[in-house]
Amino acid sequence: MSEFSAEHADQRLIGAPPGYVGYDAGGELTNAIREKPFSVVLFDEIEKAHPRILDKFLQILDDGVLTSGRGHRVYFSEALIIFTSNLGIYRTDEVGRRVQNVSASDSYEAVQAQLLSEISRYFKEELNRPEILNRIGENLVVFDFIREDVAEQIFDQMVNGVLTDLQSQGYTISLSDGARAALHALCLKNLANGGRGIRNQVEAHLVKPVARALFDQDVQPGTNLHVNALEAGTLTLVAV
Q1: Are 235 and 227 in contact (CB under 8 A)?
Q2: Which of 74, 117, 165, 216 could form a disulfide with 30 if both were Cys (CB 3.0 to 4.6 A apart)?
Q3: Is CATH 1.10.8.60 the right assignment for the domain spanning 148-239?
Q4: What is the DSSP string of 82-131?
C-alpha cells in the first residue's frame, strides 16, 4: 500500500471519475472483484496508504459494496479481505521520538495487549478515524515474534530448499554436521529481523559462498560435492 501514499491514488482502486484520463479503464480493485468475486484480497502494510484511501474501505467493511468511478456497484460479499500492518511495533514517546513498543523478550500475551492498545490509539487519536477500527471490530489477529522453535523450522526449510534447487541444476551438495551447525548458529543468532533475516543469513553464508566456489573451481553439473567446513561468509567445498 506504499504505492497509495498520495491522496489521489484512490483512483487506481475505483477508477477515475467521468471526464478524467483513465475513466474507461476502471479501477484495479473494482475490476478485479467484478471479474472474480470469490477472491482473497490482500492489502499489505495498510498504514502506509493515505488516510483518504482508508475511507474507501468504510463502505466495503460495512455494506460489502463499493461504487466504482464508472458508477458500477461492486459487491465484496464473497471476497475475503485481509489487511496487514506493522502498527504497534513502534510508538511515539512523550518527546516525539520513535521507540520500540514491544520486543521478542515479551510474552505473546504482553505483545498482543501492547499492539492492540497502540492500534486503537493510532486510529482514534492520530488518524481520527475510529469508525474504521469499529468496522474491523474484533477481527484483529496479532502475530507473535518468531521464536526459537519456529526459527528452527524456517532455517531447515530454507537450507533444504537451497540444496534442492542446486540439485535440480545438477549439483548434489551435502553439508557436514559441523558445517550445518555453524550455519545454524550464524543464521539464528539474532531473530530480531524475523524470517527475512534468516533468509539473508542463509544467502550470505551458504548461497553466495557456494556460488563463488562453484565458479572458482569450475565445477560441472553432475558432480557430487560436500561442504566440510563453514565460517562467516566462506566455506570449504570438495568433490566426493
Answers
A1: yes
A2: 74
A3: yes
A4: EE---TTSEEE-TTS-EEE---TTS-HHHHHHHHHHHHHHIIIIIS--HH
